[in-house]
Amino acid sequence: MTKQIKLKNLFVYGTLKEKGALHDSWLKDQTFMGTYYTEPNYFMFDYGPFPIVFPVKKGTGQTIEGEIFEVDRDTFSNVSAMEEGAGYEVKQDVFLSKGGAIHRMASIYVYPAKFLKFDGEIKKGVVSWNNGTVSL
Predict the structure, then answer these.
(1) What is the overall mean pLDDT for the chain?
(2) Contact 40, 53 (CB under 8 A)
(3) pTM, two decimal places
(4) pLDDT greater than 70 at residue 23
(5) I want to staple 15 with a disulfide (CB 3.0 to 4.6 A). Which of 22, 37, 49, 118 is the partner?
(6) Element (H, E) at 25
(7) Of 3-7, 35-39, 68-72, 111-115, minimum mean pLDDT range
(8) What values do phi and psi take at 120, rounded to 5?
(9) What's the per-residue H, E or C state across 52-106?
(10) Pair 110, 124: CB distance under 8 Å
(11) Is 80 exposed, middle or buried (0-12, 13-18, 19+ CB in 10 A)?
(12) Is the dihedral angle over the CA atoms 120, 127, 13, 102 positive or is it negative?
């Protein structure tokens, strides 16, 4: 009897993206599924060496551009341990689109909303992070 490998979709938006600093250490052997976009339910903060994404009230935030990787359970567990060790939480079954239609569901790591200390207005639009730069 062969052991069946269970796969999960993981949405990444920072250092784990294909050209990110941590990609080769964690995801280089996983399957790239393409660039996708969240619903406008998040706020991305540029922390410098990596972005921090917070969940916000549905429809009031930014659309995050990122990449989906199909990962095996061991990789998902290892990435989760790293991200949760840094304070992130995993949100399962997030709807992601490509070209306006919902195409996939995946897991995303976000920082708990209770830690969002931002007094300004969240600029709406599509936001992406590329090695130290957030662009809207």
Answers:
(1) 90
(2) no
(3) 0.90
(4) yes
(5) 22
(6) helix 23-26
(7) 3-7
(8) -80, 180
(9) EEEECCCCCCEEEEEEEEEEEHHHHHHHHHHHHHCCCEEEEEEEEEECCEEEEEE
(10) no
(11) middle
(12) positive
Is the CB of residue 106 less than 8 Å from the CB of residue 91?
Answer: no
Structure tokens at 21: 């600093």
- R_g (Cα) of the chain, nearest Å: 15
Q: Which residue type is seen at 29?
A: D
* pLDDT of residue 128 exceeding 70: yes
Q: Which amino acid is at 19?
A: K
* Spatial distance between the Cα atoms of 105 and 39, rounded to a whole number of angstroms: 11
Which residue type is seen at 24? D
Distance between CA atoms of residues 4 and 65, nearest Å? 31
